[in-house]
Specification:
- By secondary structure, the chain is mainly beta.
- The protein has one domain: Immunoglobulin-like.
- It has one helix and ten strands, in the order αββββββββββ.
- The strands form two sheets. Strands 1, 2, 4, 5, 6, 8 and 9 form a seven-stranded antiparallel sheet that branches. A three-stranded antiparallel sheet has the order 7-3-10, with no helix packed on it.
- A hairpin with a 2-residue loop joins β5 and β6.
- The N and C termini lie far apart (75 Å).
Length: 168
């Protein structure tokens, strides 16, 4: 009985191996496999290690001041398009009872004097972007120039700029 069981298992194993390795079309000498996948163009951004900027100089000097750096990476090998919007419509707004405002302009790298009071600003195909599989980013400096006159109402003034990045 033991010999019969061993013979049956051996016959089953040989039959299974032969069935798995069977080639139905014997006319060809090669096999081809076609396959593809798509990686969509994309960009990623962060504000790096930037913290909220406190202590802006809001006097009559209208000094241009850095508010941070924008770090961008894209998988397209091209510069990114970035869009900038202001939570306060291009104004620093005070926390006082009047909600006093101070206008400002934005500098993006070498592009200066951008007025967000007219709405979103699109920096088309211009923001430097890192590339490659290691994810190294390129940094762009962001600065504002408050249009204060030194006689503005007392209060702490602030705004938030949101940057959306997209591939070209």
């Amino acid at each position: 009985m033991n010999t019969l069981l061993k013979s049956l298992l051996a016959a089953t194993a040989i039959t299974s191996m032969g069935a798995a390795a069977a080639v139905l079309d014997t006319s060809g000498t090669e096999a081809k496999f076609t396959f593809e996948g798509t990686i969509q163009p994309m960009c990623k951004t962060s504000s790096g290690n930037n913290n909220s900027v406190t202590g802006l100089k809001l006097d009559s000097s209208q000094q241009t001041q850095e508010i941070g750096t924008l770090d961008v990476w894209c998988n397209t090998g091209e510069n990114a398009t970035t869009e900038y919007t202001s939570a306060n419509g291009g104004f620093l707004v005070a926390n006082n009872a009047k909600g006093s405002k101070i206008a400002y302009t934005l500098n993006i790298g070498d592009t200066a004097g951008i007025d967000l009071q007219t709405g979103a600003y699109k920096h088309t195909k211009a923001t430097a972007a890192g590339t490659g599989s290691a994810g190294e980013t390129q940094a762009t400096s962001l600065k504002i120039t408050p249009q204060s006159n030194g006689l503005n109402d007392a209060g702490t003034y602030s705004d938030t700029i949101t940057v959306t990045v997209s591939p070209n």
